[in-house]
Amino acid sequence: MRYGARNRITARVKSVTKGDVMALVKFEVTVPVEMASVLTVESAEHLGLEVGDEVRLVVKAIHVLPVKE
Question: Is-contact 3 66, C-beta < 8 A?
Fold first, then answer.
């Protein structure tokens, strides 16, 4: 299957809840992942980011595309 999304995270289907038209599928991430963010130096300095700091990553995305191969 061909798809345009480049970021891929391996996951396991945790639950499937079906409605009349839509289905809610929840996933459990099954492998360690590394994520990255590009931000201005000013923003990084404002946040005071240092190696080892614990932060929460908020992912702003429109779609999560499950691909079963």
Answer: no
CB atoms within 10 A of CB 47: 11
- One-letter amino acid of 50: E
For residues 54 and 22, what is the distance between their CA atoms, to the nearest angstrom? 36
Kindly give the confidence (pLDDT) of every residue in the chain, 69 residues in length, as a single tens digit, with 9 standing for 90 and above: 565 556 677 788 899 999 999 988 888 887 777 777 888 999 999 999 998 988 887 777 777 777 777
Entry pTM = 0.56
Rounded Cα gap, residues 36 and 23, in angstroms: 30
What share of residues in the chain are helix, strand, coil (percent, to 5)?
Answer: 10, 20, 70
29 has which bridge partners?
A: 11
